[in-house]
Amino acid sequence: MKPHVLVTKRIYPEAIAYLKQHAEVDYAESDDGLSADELLVRARDKQGLVSQLTDKFSAAVIDQLDGVRVIANVAVGFDNIDVPAATRRKILVTNTPEVLTDTTADFAFALLMAAARRVVEGHQFVHSGKWTKWRIDLLVGQDIHHRTLGIFGMGRIGQAVARRGRGFSMRILYHDAVCAPESVERELGLEFVTAERLLRESDFVSLHVPLMPETRHMMSAEQFRMMKPTAILVNTSRGPVVDEAALAEALEKRVIAGAGIDVFENEPRVDPKLLTLENVVLAPHIASASVDTRKKMSMMAAENAVEALEGRRPANLLNPEAAPQ
Ligand code: DGY
Question: Do 74 and 212 have their domain in common?
Fold first, then answer.
């Protein structure tokens, strides 16, 4: 008998087709997602769930997932899932790493460049018919090449951003809970520094840490005050890593010069003050949103679910302790 899988939200059709070859699929084919109650009702007779970052799996929800053997999240981040709670119930949890690394790094760099070189302001200026003459200081911004890039979190995406920084002849500082392997430091010309030094010396600060209790609001008023007044913050990690109200205030008072922000504390809500500022480039959580990557993420999550349901260890298992030994 085929296992039963709930797909909680719309994903790419090839992933649904693949799931259908291996399972009975209950597909919530909408972009709205399921409420917590709907999720629990539809998960009742399922062994597998293919979820997205908007589905919240707290310990209380997980404790009601009788019969579920795997939650396959279509994202590299998994802060929407209480993994220890899943482990206690022997539910495997998987994510979709690697396939989105370069796409996300491209976008972090796009935000960095857009904020530094005032691309969005330039677009709006031309579009609104305000461009009447060339001027020596029209929309002058910050140089990127040969400047200092500070990266918090030197995992896969942090490294991919550093690689792009190298292409722009940047000096690259980083800070993380653990040092990157020496070979990586050497290849990318990285210098490990304290968080404070990174903030004080960087022209651009890019965040690539997971959301955990230790990283929640790691960027707040105090950190902004340590940054250069010409510095630019880029966040493509998770919204709550940055204190959004403090960021809006720092941008408004020009404590820092600008920001490129893809993720927010209470998505899709954005701090109203941020929406009024010209020195921030805002995007709707789309750093991994290339057609190829989003297809690959959908497919990878489907494959992870099938692997688990067919008794094999999924390639992207986050809690091996939950797997049968
Ligand atoms: C992730 O994968 O965690 C991103 O935030 C969405 O692609």
Answer: no
Residue 185 falls in the annotated catalytic set:
no
- The angle subtended at Cα 105 by Cα 103 and Cα 110, nearest 5°, is 95
Ligand 1 atom closest to Cα of residue 78: 3
Identify whether the C-beta of residue 73 lies closer than 8 Å to the C-beta of residue 301: yes
Question: Is the beta carbon of 77 within 6 A of some atom in ligand 1?
Answer: yes
Residue 211 near ligand 1, beta carbon < 6 Å: no
For the whole model, what pTM was predicted?
Answer: 0.97
Q: Is 100 in the pocket of ligand 1 (CB under 6 A)?
A: yes
State the closest ligand 1 atom to the C-alpha of 238, by its place in the atom list counted from 1. 5
154 shares its domain with 235: yes
208 lies in which domain range? 101-282
pLDDT tens, 174-203?
Answer: 999 999 999 999 999 999 999 999 999 999
Q: Indicate whether 92 and 108 sit together in one domain.
A: no
Catalytic, out of 238, 244, 265, 307:
238
In short, whether 158's Cβ falls inside 6 Å of ligand 1 is no
How many other C-beta atoms can be found within 10 angstroms of the C-beta atom of residue 179? 13
CATH number, domain of 317, equals 3.40.50.720
Looking at every residue in the chain, the average pLDDT score rounds to 98
- Please give the Cα distance from 13 to 17 (Å, whole number): 6
Domain tally for the chain? Answer: 2
In a shared domain, residues 266 and 299: no
Assess whether 267 carries a catalytic annotation: yes
pLDDT tens, residue by residue, 235-267: 999 999 999 999 999 999 999 999 999 999 999
25, 58, 177 from 28: Cα distances, Å: 9, 20, 39
Ligand 1: which atom is nearest the Cα of residue 288? 7
Is the domain of 193 the same as that of 52?
Answer: no
Helix, strand and coil content of the chain, in percent to the nearest 5, comes to 40, 15, 45
Catalytic residue selected from 196, 267, 278, 321 = 267
According to DSSP H, which parts of 89-208 are helical?
A: 101-116, 119-127, 156-167, 182-188, 195-201
